[in-house]
Amino acid sequence: MTTFLVTGGTGTLGRLVAERLREGGHEVRVLTRRSRPYAVDLREGGGALDTALDGVDTVVHCATTPRGGDERAATNLVAAARRAGVAHLVYISIVGVDRVPLGYYRSKLAVERLVEQSGLGWTVLRATQFHDLVVQVLRALTRPPVAVLPAHAEDQPVEVAEVADRLAGLAVGAPAGRVADVGGPEVRTFESLTRAYLEATGRRRRVVRVPLAGKTYRAFRAGGHLAPGRAVGTRTFEEYLAERFGGGQGGRRG
Hints:
This protein is of the alpha/beta class. It is built from nine helices and ten strands.
């Protein structure tokens, strides 16, 4: 039986990865800032992190935040994993971190480099945006009476459970380096995603597309965050919406 440590193991992805590994009969430790017995702030590290890693074979690193600190957290995790003799470090990243000059993406790319140079056996998987994150963005954009969308923008949302399946499968295998990306089944215009969300939640909004400026917008418009050649996900955005909101005018507001 392999012992796993899943960082961010109560989050959207980490919780599902931990479940998959437990279902496979493995011992799983969940590390977050507040969940005992392995409550650790990775940005601070320390003895509690060493204790959490004692006897661990494989680390699945899902903990992340767009508010900063990912690089410091990864530096501490790698150092502690080396001290503990961890055999395999698995990291989940984002499609386009090397093509889109967004601060959060640059941080994720820097963490990839730390993992690759860690001296540990490593695996890095990149995925497109999860369905629920797209919904969070659309909820904010459609709050006013007029939904202002970036023109010429597309996305490729993927089901988080499918990414969890892939990540857990990689974790139980041998270190594989940078593996093929995981993308959702469809590349969709942002307008079509917005209209699907409005229909599912029973909302009526005027939709206006506005061209934006800047390097980040140009990179998104060019599809730097997409993986059309890796559209391996199967669950569509509409299927996700139907389950979450009940489908159409009678659905929950969200």
